[in-house]
């Protein structure tokens, strides 16, 4: 029997089992990979019924696929949403969702700091089509309140924010916005935390988006994304944002790898969090380091807030060296074990420089205005033994 949606089971158990019934699949412990673009109908009536939506079932893999459906049930279960849609990339999920929710004349209120390509899509994509993008500091609830208007259709933010690690209060923002108008959709990018650490839908958000490329896949071997929310909105995104606007369809092979990755999600997140905590504490005391941004440090301004909405503090750290930009470059070029690479959430410790890499689509002035400093270094704590990661960082910091 399928144990889909059994909320009584713990998160780790649901990560392994939710959405898949081996007894309905020849006993196969792992799900079959349905490599098919189309589905044969028994007769014309059945085909017509599937197209009109009157009959359940697949008709073309740009819309749905049985392997993909397993991942979607599992993600919906873990995020505690009704339904999910898996996509070819995180940007595929973000763009398919926003193309579905907004049109010319509508406004999106976004936090002042966003993942680089999300910023680029808003600033250079949606704006061109007449959507008003308004940047607000979401940690300032008075400012957020003052910007809400009849035009506001979507509220969009990440928390902790990539790359500067500010923490936004999901429950407080949701209450404030829903008090103004229950029709405004609240969208949270939960890539940094995954549902293992934070479940925005239980705190009042309407939609959660993911880059599954990161912790959900967890092994740096794929690009994928997902959106989770209520069944009606997810269906609209599937039939418009995905089917007609982006075509950002995920491959069944990629789905298989993400399902495999999610089985160890909780185990991996525990180690990512432990390693990040130890790295942050070492950096905090290091004479070459000016500032460490990590909500797990008791001295961090977001520590109390993060403790209430996150189960642990995550695997991502940002830091600023006393020697600024030049010192950052010297340190990054001296790393031996940690890889100088963008992306995050992999087994390998990854370090990058947002101003020249992930956030280089912002101009210098935009970075200053949006809170991304030039010397900032971002670390994704990997799964290596902590003493080896620390030894590598220490030798690089000596320069
Ligand atoms: C990587 C990332 C994205 C984009 O996801 P892709 O899978 O690379 O398209 C969006 N948001 C955040 C926070 C990310 O880290």
From TrEMBL:
PROSITE patterns: CYS_MET_METAB_PP
Short name of one Pfam family: Cys_Met_Meta_PP
Gene3D superfamilies: Aspartate Aminotransferase, domain 1, Type I PLP-dependent aspartate aminotransferase-like (Major domain)
Cofactor requirements of the protein: pyridoxal 5'-phosphate
Sorted UniProt keywords: Lyase, Pyridoxal phosphate
Record's catalysed reaction(s): L-methionine + H2O = methanethiol + 2-oxobutanoate + NH4(+)
Domain of life: Bacteria
Coiled-coil positions: none
One GO MF term: methionine gamma-lyase activity
EC number(s) on file: 4.4.1.11
Keyword hit for Lyase: yes
InterPro entries found in the cross-reference section: Cys/Met-Metab_PyrdxlP-dep_enz (IPR000277), Cys_met_metab_PP (IPR054542), L-Met_gamma_lys (IPR006237), PyrdxlP-dep_Trfase (IPR015424), PyrdxlP-dep_Trfase_major (IPR015421), PyrdxlP-dep_Trfase_small (IPR015422)
PANTHER family listed in its UniProt record: CYSTATHIONINE GAMMA-LYASE, TRANS-SULFURATION ENZYME FAMILY MEMBER
Family (UniProt): Belongs to the trans-sulfuration enzymes family. L-methionine gamma-lyase subfamily.
Protein name according to UniProt: L-methionine gamma-lyase
Organism: SAR92 clade bacterium H455
């Amino acid at each position: 029997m399928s144990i889909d949606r059994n909320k009584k089971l713990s998160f780790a158990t649901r990560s392994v089992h939710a959405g898949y019934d081996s007894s309905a699949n020849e006993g196969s412990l792992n799900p079959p990979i349905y490599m098919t673009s189309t589905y044969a109908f028994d007769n014309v009536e059945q085909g017509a019924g599937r197209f009109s939506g009157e009959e359940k079932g697949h008709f073309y893999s740009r819309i749905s696929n049985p392997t993909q459906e397993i991942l979607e049930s599992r993600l919906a279960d873990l995020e505690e949403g009704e339904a999910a849609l898996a996509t070819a990339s995180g940007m595929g999920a973000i763009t398919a969702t926003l193309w579905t929710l907004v049109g010319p004349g509508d406004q999106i209120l976004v936090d002042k700091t966003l993942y680089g390509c999300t910023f680029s899509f808003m600033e250079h994509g949606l704006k061109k089509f007449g959507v008003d993008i308004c940047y607000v500091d979401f940690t300032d609830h008075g400012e957020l309140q003052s910007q809400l208007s009849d035009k506001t259709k979507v509220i969009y933010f990440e928390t902790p924010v990539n790359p500067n690690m500010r923490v936004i209060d999901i429950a407080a923002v949701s209450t404030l916005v829903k008090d103004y108008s229950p029709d405004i959709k609240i969208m949270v990018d939960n890539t940094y935390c995954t549902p293992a650490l934070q479940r925005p839908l239980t705190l009042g958000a309407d939609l959660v988006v993911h880059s599954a490329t990161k912790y959900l896949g967890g092994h740096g071997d794929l690009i994928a994304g997902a959106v989770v929310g209520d069944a009606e909105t997810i269906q609209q995104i599937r039939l418009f944002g995905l089917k007609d606007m982006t075509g950002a369809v995920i491959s069944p092979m990629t789905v298989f790898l993400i399902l495999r990755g999610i089985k160890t999600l909780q185990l991996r997140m525990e180690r990512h969090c432990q390693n990040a905590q130890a790295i942050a504490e070492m950096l905090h005391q290091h004479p070459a380091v000016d500032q460490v941004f990590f909500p797990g440090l008791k001295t961090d301004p977001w520590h109390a807030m993060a403790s209430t909405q996150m189960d642990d503090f995550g695997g991502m750290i940002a830091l600023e060296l006393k020697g600024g930009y030049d010192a950052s470059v010297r340190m990054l070029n001296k790393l031996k074990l940690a890889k100088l690479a963008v992306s995050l959430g992999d087994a390998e410790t990854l370090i990058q420089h947002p101003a020249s890499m992930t956030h280089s689509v912002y101009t210098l002035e935009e970075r200053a205005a949006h809170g991304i400093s030039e010397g900032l270094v971002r670390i994704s704590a990997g799964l290596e033994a902590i003493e080896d990661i620390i030894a590598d960082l220490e030798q690089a910091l000596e320069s």
